[in-house]
Amino acid sequence: MLLDHLLSWLIFVPLIAGGIMLFVPSDKEQAFKVIALVAMLVEFVLTMVLMCSFDRSLVGYSASSLQFAQKLEWINLNIGSFGSILIQYYVAVDGVSILMVLLTAIVMLVGVISSWNIKKSVKGYFVLYMVLTTSVFGCFVSIDMFLFYLFFEFMLLPMYFLIGIWGGKRREYASMKFFIYTLVGSLFILMVMIGLNLSVVEAPGSSVHTFDIMKMMDPSNYLGEAMLGFSTQWMGVSVRVWAFLFLMIGFAIKLPAVPVHTWLPDAHVEAPTPISVVLAGVLLKIGGYGFYRIAYSIFPESAVAYGWYIALAGVIAIIYAALVAMAQSDLKKLIAYSSVSHMGFVLLGLASLTIEGASGAMFQMFSHGVISALLFILVGVLYDRTGNREIANFSGLATKMPYYSAAVLVGFFAALGLPGFSGFIAEFLVLIGAFDGAVNGSILSTWMPIVGLVGLVLGAAYFLWTLQRMFFGKFWVKDESWQLPDLNRREWLMILPLVVLAVLFGIFPNILLDYSNETIIGFVDYIQSQSEANTILIQAGN
Amino acid sequence: MVDLNSILMLAILLLPLVGGLLAYMAGNRGGGVTIATVFAAVLGIAVWSFLTIPAGTNLQADWIRLGEYSFAVGLWYDQLTGIMVMVVALIALLVAVFSMEYMKHDESRARYFGLLGLFAFSMYGIVLSSNLLLTFVFWELVGFSSYLLIGFWFDQVKPPLSSFKAFVMNKVGDAGFLLGIFVLYAYFKTLNIAELLVLAEAGLDIPDAMLFMAGLGLFLAAVGKSAQFPLQTWLPDAMTGPTPVSALIHAATMVAAGVYLLVRVFPLLSPDVLQLIGVIGGVTAFTGAFAAFAQNDIKKILAYSTVSQLGYMVMAIGAGFPVAAFFHLVTHAFFKAGLFLCAGSIIHYFHETNHDHDFDAQDIRNMGGLRAVLPITFVTFTICTLSLAGIPLFSGFLSKELVIGGILSSDLPSIVSIFALVSVFMTAAYMGRLYFRVFFGTQVKSRFVENIKMKLPLMVLTALSFWAVFTLNPFGSHNGVTDSLAQIIFNPEMAHYTWLPILSVVLAVSGILVAYLYVEKGMLVKPVSASKKIWGGLSANNFYLDYFHRKIVAGGAMKGASFLFFFDKKILDRLIDLLAKAEVVFAHFVGLIDKHVVDGLVKLLAWTARFAGGRTRKLQSGNVQMYFVWALFGLLIIVYFLT
Fold first, then answer.
1. Which of A538, B348, B369, B378 has the CB geometry, 3.0–4.6 Å to B442, for a possible disulfide?
2. Out of A326, A359, A431, closest to residue B66 by CB
3. Which regions in chain A score pLDDT beneath 70?
4. pTM (two decimals)
5. Are B169 and B224 in contact (CB under 8 A)?
6. Residue B137 in contact with residue B125, Cβ under 8 Å?
């Protein structure tokens, strides 16, 4: 019984918790924290149940390889001769999305602990946090595109307020920027979604228009002359190419990829620590997940044909953001840019369409989720004590805060991809996959992974330079009145598990890879073969 | 699977890690004893393994499984592994014992001994690994533990800078290593070294450019770790770490890892790559020796000397004689570790007897006459120096002859041979300068008794610098190490030059003689002013390579970074901002249109209606006669239109 509706419980438990909070008087601040914590613990346990009962040996990449599927008709709108529009409540997981669910459960739980010292309107904060959690879980398990889009858009609302109310000095500017950026991105996605719905029916010959992503992957479900059909063209190019491009833009903003990344540093700098943790830890991954689940799956022919450009965008992001990170004077901004650099690896790995590369991209999403959450918590520790994050204002912190400095050292080495941490597995798989794909495939060029290697050197440079400037040398801080106690118990409670996870997955990568292997093998195989079939269809259509 | 051999190999690998943890937990009092005990146990196991484990024993496991394929990791044991493990184990033990005395006043020595364990673990990993991926993992871990050890005194200014520099320089090499791995994987789908070597024997099926890239990448890895030109500048800076660490890491083990890797993968290196390796090695040997001249810091002289000697090993690889390279690695490990520990003994002496904070205990200009107060250090330093200079009856002579003979009989450019020979003279000269300056003269007089924990390691390392350890014939080119390696490693016949030993001995002796004369005349002792003498400046600043790295490479990267940040903030983000602002302006414009045109029309309509209403309102005057007239008028109009 529980297992049948497991994903629904995952989605709605936070919402229920949020609903309960509404009935609690707002001066009972502790109650909200406890309810949120309990809800996240329940989510975590549910995720563990999900992980344990997931069948890791199920092969393929199609509707039949999805697990824990729950499909309910939600809206069936009959529009006369056009047919009808079917919106389903269709949730399910495969080997990739289950890992994203796990990541969400971990990061959201850590986020609640990190929210413990929120002072301002606690009730509103935690209700919004619960809504955010629901939409993130919903995003990762939706198979119906309408449902996905709904959750995708719904995330904006709590994020806007969480940054705009609980943020730093320029919070309104940052939240507005975040909102508009993402909204513009999602408009692109909306356009494609409508186009797809107009073009895809439940089964060949049917007149029921569907939002089912799995159905959109099968060319025989497309209406011949429809908007996103295989023979329709716009400005001399197949409309499907345009649609792919639109999805790319939409998800690239969320990822974010250069040059549409400029909302991220502002959002991070202004967001309160727990929201930065959630933003970097989970929300960015929805961009990468969108590439995988929607853009690549529905338009495999473009994924192959334009893979080179996607990889190029990845390589540019890796180098560009690493260099920009080096020039930062604000520690949090530095880490924000390092996030952009790390997400470049996701693009590069996915674009290679090799099993190594795609697995690496998935692993990078997970690993970066854990490590960036750790890094933002570490920045928060310093900010809580001093209200300051300027690198130049600190020196020799290691003498005053040895444990904190040791944690930062570990966090930085994890982030720069030292073997033994999960980041190494991810970057290694991405780059070796990209190189292999360049040599034995036709999508990438060999210089791309080589330039990616330069990114690794730059990563080491900016992280260790920061370490040397802020933590080593003679102790000195700008304001002598700053109190600098070492880590407290609550901070340990967040930092230690994340470090353990980064090491655990770095030494035993198959804890994660065993979940994703069959799905990714199926995915790569599906993209390769379907892209050929679709290309033939497009050529035949013209 | 789990047989005794595997257990022995795993014990060598894992014991130091466990020992390091235990040492850290044992705290300042027990840390040293703990790690020394563990290292002693590892040495015992290393010898036991060498005697019992058959060559070719391996242990394999899957690490990263991706469906059908999996990236394996594994350990491998043959003579090369065995010798290297014993060398590392012995030096690690001696350094640990030495450190117990050397670090006895340091308040965080528990951390120090813990890190020694971590380092040894990483180093054994490189040595035992059968697989390039696993080698790389430990390769980076060696870099990491060396980062922590170089920057051990993190509350000072210089050590953190040096450790930062060392790690980044090493990371450049690591990137090359990964590139090599990528190429080999893309073409052969295996990273197992033994399997790759079997493939290489049959002729590698790979385009020349790619084979060159693979070799270049692996060599770049060695350039980083083994401090070759142009990345060697991290090694002299790394001397800011504790001196015993320099003996372990920066003389005998970590820096030797690059050479060890090249020996391991030698058959994969294409002729073009070998030419490059030879030339780079020659340049490194020469520049290192040259830079050692004008240094006044005893550790820096030894560091540059290490750079130079590593250059010899790399030259030998380039010449196609990996066995010679490895032999020089072994002999150098002993006498150079000995020299570093002697330096440690000297520095320790000054720390113990001179409590003036401004006193620089490493500056040789402050030293002199130490032979009277540190007799054991004096004797051991003498012997290790003779070995380094390549004087017969010492191990350095044997290995250097082999290396130079290999270079002469190879087809490397003749400049490499010249570098190799000139550096023999220079090595003897800079070591002579150091030696006479430190031990002769009459400057120092404080009474002091050398501690047994420091004397013993010195004496062991010195004993290992005699020829007889390796062969009974003091002029023989065959010896225990080379003979056992020749069975498993490519070892071509070397041309025999009867004049070579004579020439190199003449060079070495004249180098020492020149140094003696100079020091006695008191000339080269003063720091050579960079502005006055161009050669002195080049030497003191290592050909301004550091300056180049700092100003051109790092400065260039920073300039690029600043520019991109400017671009990001002022152009890219401004563009988006402008777009948003343009939208707002447009919205205001639309608002104006809305207000004045659209709304204006509506208002006009309303105004018209009101106006008309205002006018017609007057018709309702309450005058019945007027109503009648209007009604009649209306009726007339209707009638008019109807008819």
1. B369
2. A359
3. 1, 542
4. 0.91
5. yes
6. yes
